[in-house]
Amino acid sequence: xxxxxxxxxxxxxTRVADVGLPWEKLKGKSVLLSxxxxxxxxxxxDLLLHKNADGLNCTVYALGRTQKKAEERFSKWWGDNxxxxxxxNVNQPFVRNDIGTVDYVLHLASNTHxxxxxxxxxxxxxxxxxxxxxxxxxxxxxxxxxxxFTSSNEIYGENRGDVExxxxxxxxxxxxxxxxxxxxxxxRCGEALCQAYKTQKGLDVVIPRFTRSYGxxxxxxxxxxxxxxxxxxxxxxxxxxxxxxxxNYSYTYMxxxxxxxxxxxxxxxxxxxxxxADEASNITLKDLAKIIADHAGKQVVFEIPDxxxxxxxxxxxxxxxxxxxxxxxxxxxxxxxxxxxxxxIDILKML
Length: 351
Fold this sequence. Notes:
Rossmann fold
């Protein structure tokens, strides 16, 4: 079975496709996105192409490094005139004289898990800065209506102990003189670069800030804690927790994250940053591990991480995001963490 024949996955697509967003802003338009085969980008591609059946007539330019990977992931749509795959490494200049106006440009590509942070720190930083600038230049050159830079909960750093949840104006502590700082600091710099393009080039930008996202479109190579837990649950193995598990984080199911992204793109204020987060999906790492272990009928066991793994782990112990600003635009997620995790495992088990 593939995602395209999985009833739960198709239900996710239908649910987001049926929400009351101003879809008319995308009718007959074009959307170009980097990171098209990733956890979030691939669901967005599926959603927009599915929505075309309702007359959206939206062309999707999907950027990725490997055509074979894209062809396998988007097998349902391969050959559809509304899907145009463009092989591209975002750290290289992006010049396409064969493309006219592109209405919406989204930079989703990024190193997004601990092993990448530890083993490719240069690529982690350059994708969020040089890759972003290449995409911003493309958006200006191709007269984009709006540009979105997908930022991260990690830009807030460590909670200073003065707030319970981070709103969009919060700025916690990050020790910039460390290897692990490459990801959050480059995301911070990327946000500032977007504001520079807004002021100097007149580009309309928005900044959705994702929490720790998960779902059945996750890459099996992902080394985030939640991804490792889910893989163990699918395999029917004990869940391995490599810390005391007291870290308290916000999470978002893939479909809700993309629903939030579209809400920001279609309804957000120019220049605005928006947390995509819901209090119902705040949870400690040990409780998250227990949900998965219980669903798999297994136990949670503890293990010391090796040096490479530990180097990539976030140092934040409490990172809960306040999503009220986004909710005022009408976003209301479908899934709590208690519902989303079993759903993810159930879908992946059938693939």
